[in-house]
Design brief:
The protein is an alpha+beta fold. The protein has six helices and five strands; from the N terminus they run αβαββαααββα. The protein has one domain: CBS-domain. It has a three-stranded mixed sheet. α5 (88-98) crosses α6.
Length: 153
């Protein structure tokens, strides 16, 4: 499976922030939309990622207040990215290695979407469930060999 399989199911709604906007307005958008991350864009380029992890770190650093902080002051400047052709096994490995919960999907400097660790896990579990159903159906319909004793029913 590849990242484009997740994006096809997930949809294409994207939420972004600009680096010089207030952190308070970005957090309000995250809370209003019930999302855990914002891609930070500047002049059409991805320049960072803001997640609740960075927001919490800013709160701790500022004694529990966001104050006049900007998105730039809190964002991760070099977020992990992938393409729509990246294999899900590679995505899982990258996300685990970097403790990343969200990953922007970029094609030729164009933001295609954002996938979360939850999206990846759900896709893997759904794929395994489908495979299990197919295997069970195959085993149930297994042809009997000629000359073999009949199973008791």
């Amino acid at each position: 499976m590849k990242v484009h399989d997740i994006l096809r199911v997930k949809g294409s709604t994207l939420y972004t922030a600009q680096p010089d906007e207030s952190l308070v307005s970005a957090v309000n958008l995250m809370a209003e939309r019930d999302i855990g991350s914002l891609v930070v864009m500047e002049h059409g380029d991805l320049v960072g990622m803001l997640t609740f992890r960075e927001v919490i770190q800013t709160l701790v650093k500022n004694g529990g207040a966001l104050g006049a902080s900007t998105v730039r002051s809190a964002m991760e400047e070099h977020p992990l990215t992938c393409t729509s052709e990246t294999n899900l096994d590679d995505v899982r490995r990258m996300m685990l290695d970097r403790h990343a919960r969200y990953m922007p999907v970029v094609e030729d400097r164009t933001l295609m979407g954002v996938i979360s660790f939850y999206d990846v896990a759900r896709t893997v579990v759904d794929g395994q469930n489908f495979e299990n159903k197919m295997l069970k159906a195959y085993i149930r319909d297994w042809p009997e060999e000629e000359g073999a004793p009949k199973a008791a029913q």
